[in-house]
Amino acid sequence: EQWAANEARTERGLAPVLDALMAWAAPTQGMRVVDVGCGAGGTTLALSNAVGTQGHVTGLDVSAVILEAA
Questions:
Q1: How far does Cα 41 stand from its chain's mean position?
Q2: Other CB atoms closer than 10 Å to residue 63's CB: what's the count?
Q3: 41-64: pLDDT as tens digits
Q4: What three-state secondary structure class fits 36?
Q5: CB 38, CB 59: distance < 8 Å
Q6: CB atoms within 10 A of CB 61
Q7: Is a pLDDT exceeding 90 seen at residue 69?
Q8: Model pLDDT for residues 31-40, shown as the tens digit of each residue
Q9: Coil, strand, or helix at residue 34?
Q10: Closest alpha carbon to 11 in 51, 60, 69, 57
Q11: For 30, left (φ over 0), alpha (ψ -120 to 50), or beta?
Q12: DSSP per-residue letters across 49-68
């Protein structure tokens, strides 16, 4: 699947968007978050780090191949 083949490049290209998203959403310890369109999990991992062990993040993506890579 093309998405899986380009995932590393996509994650690098979206890094500035991730920074802006994290600043806007301001996730904090203990939050429960759904990451829709999570891809291979770069955003999911960033959210997980922000919410900590008391929080929870669920990643959803339409691509089974991408989710396997995550």
A1: 4
A2: 18
A3: 889 999 999 999 999 999 998 888
A4: strand
A5: yes
A6: 19
A7: no
A8: 999 999 888 8
A9: strand
A10: 69
A11: left
A12: HHH-TTSEEEEE-S-HHHHH
